[in-house]
Amino acid sequence: SAPMARKLKKESPGEAILKGEGMKKLRTYLMRYWYLYLFGMICMIAAIVLDMITPQITRCIIDEAMVGGQMQLLMKFLMGVLGIGLARAVLQYVKEFTWDSVGVKIGNEMRIDLFRHIQTLSMNFFDRHNTGELMTRVKDDVDKVWVVLGFVGSLAIEALIHTVFVLTCMY
């Protein structure tokens, strides 16, 4: 009968994600490290703000030191640019390290949880499914989540924030 067929039909992983079930599980991993993501975001925003200051210093170099003839200010402005560059480098490193380490931690936790789940499966499951294919999918899927929660996620957020800041400074 049709109701029985619907009960027997297995839900694909894509359908589970569309219903939000996969994202709920992912959210639990993310919430464990919210404070590290927040720290990374603060470093990211600080680096972007410093990046927005550099053109203002360049404007001062041109307007005040070169055109205005106040060459004694040139060294101060150049030291400011150097200091901003060093601070940005440190902040970007800390941000990258934080986001990547959180991504690795979440990936490891997901692998452990998946391994525990796989151990609970019946032998019939392994008779029906190729074990090598299963392990490859687990590894590849967790690696993709790690990349999104680490480097790619921070890069996307940084590009968005940077764009908003640049547009704000332009107008």
Can you lay out the helices and strands and say which pair or pack?
Blueprint: H1 2-8, H2 13-18, H3 21-32, H4 34-67, H5 74-120, H6 123-128, H7 131-170
Describe the fold and architecture.
This protein is mostly helical. 89% of the residues lie in helices and 0% in strands. It has seven helices and no strands. The chain has helices at 2-8, 13-18, 21-32, 34-67, 74-120, 123-128, 131-170. Helix 4 (34-67) packs antiparallel against helix 5 (74-120) and helix 5 packs antiparallel against helix 7. The longest helix has 47 residues, at 74-120. It is rod-shaped.
Give me some keywords for this one.
mainly alpha; 171 residues; rod-shaped
Q: How many E strands? A: 0
Task: Indicate the percent of residues in helices.
Answer: over 70%
The total of helices stands at 7
Radius of gyration: 25 Å
- What is the first-to-last residue Cα distance? 64 Å
Report the β-strand fraction as a percent range.
under 5%
Cα shape: rod-shaped
Oligomer: single chain
Q: If you average the pLDDT, what whole number results?
A: 83
Poorly predicted residue ranges: 1-9, 11-18
Question: Given the helix and strand composition, which structural class is it?
Answer: mainly alpha
- Biggest β-sheet strands, sense, barrel: none
